[in-house]
């Protein structure tokens, strides 16, 4: 199950997991985004495309069940969906900005794990990987709500890991610096994008943390920073 599948990192993750023969449940907020990103997967019995709100438990449970119905189980959750905002200074921070970041980056993890963890517990195994951020480690000016929400995500990853690691489920995150996407290049035209992290490289890190080779890694945040 890959959330935010139609985005730049989502598309790279889909390509990486498809290359190893995985059956995929691709989730994004609108089916049209998924159809545009993956026209060759529309109607493909090996994959499921599902519109869903990652902040809504019922929506994520419905998406997860579509994978269970199609494939019998959910082996892994790769939670990419989230949000980023440069915002106000802390002393000017609006409740709306705070809630938006917390919902997209922290609560969404809880909503998605509501949907998949029961299936993984029943199977006695599973892997969950969230996309955090290197900036979660410390405060950054004008990024208070974003940094706080990614830090909250990391604490949720650690907590869930402590709760389910004895039951065969590995829970971790990747913490990238700036990802080399078209949107980031447009937003920072003067920056040296060669120093950023490519979506493909980050997708390989996600794949590793879902693999048997990473089954002994629990509650960690893999920093993937390129040269930045």
Automatic annotation (TrEMBL):
Instruction: Cite a single GO MF annotation.
Output: oxidoreductase activity
Q: Which domain of life is it from?
A: Bacteria
Q: Which UniProt keywords apply?
A: Oxidoreductase
Entries under InterPro entries matching the protein: NAD(P)-bd_dom_sf, Sc_DH/Rdtase_CS, SDR_fam
Keyword Oxidoreductase part of the UniProt annotation? yes
> Pfam families attached here?
adh_short (PF00106)
Q: Please verify whether the record's keywords include Secreted.
A: no
* SUPFAM superfamilies the record matches: NAD(P)-binding Rossmann-fold domains
Entries under PROSITE patterns matching the protein: ADH_SHORT
PANTHER family attached here? DEHYDROGENASES, SHORT CHAIN, ESTRADIOL 17-BETA-DEHYDROGENASE 8-RELATED
Per the record, the similarity remark reads: Belongs to the short-chain dehydrogenases/reductases (SDR) family.
Identification of the protein by name = NADP-dependent 3-hydroxy acid dehydrogenase YdfG
Top-down, what is the taxonomic lineage of the species of origin?
Bacteria, Pseudomonadati, Pseudomonadota, Gammaproteobacteria, Lysobacterales
């Amino acid at each position: 199950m890959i959330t935010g599948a139609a985005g730049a990192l989502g598309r790279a993750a889909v390509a990486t997991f498809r290359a190893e023969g995985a059956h995929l449940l691709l989730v994004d907020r609108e089916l049209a985004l998924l159809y545009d990103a993956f026209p060759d997967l529309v109607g493909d019995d090996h994959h499921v495309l599902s519109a869903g709100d990652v902040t809504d438990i019922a929506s994520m449970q419905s998406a997860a069940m579509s994978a269970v119905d199609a494939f019998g189980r959910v082996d892994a959750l790769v939670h990419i969906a989230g949000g980023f905002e440069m915002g106000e200074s802390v002393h000017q921070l609006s409740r709306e900005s705070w809630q938006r970041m917390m919902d997209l980056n922290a609560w969404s993890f809880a909503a998605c794990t509501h949907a998949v963890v029961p299936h993984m517990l029943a199977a006695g195994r599973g892997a969950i990987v969230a996309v955090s951020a290197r900036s979660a480690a410390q405060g950054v000016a004008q990024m208070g709500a974003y940094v706080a929400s990614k830090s909250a995500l990391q604490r949720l990853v650690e907590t869930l890991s402590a709760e389910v690691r004895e039951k065969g489920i590995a829970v971790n995150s990747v913490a990238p610096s700036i990802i080399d996407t078209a949107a980031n290049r447009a937003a920072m035209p003067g920056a040296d994008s060669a120093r950023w992290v490519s979506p493909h490289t980050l997708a390989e890190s996600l794949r590793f943390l879902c693999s048997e080779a990473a089954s002994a890694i629990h509650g960690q945040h893999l920093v993937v920073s390129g040269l930045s």
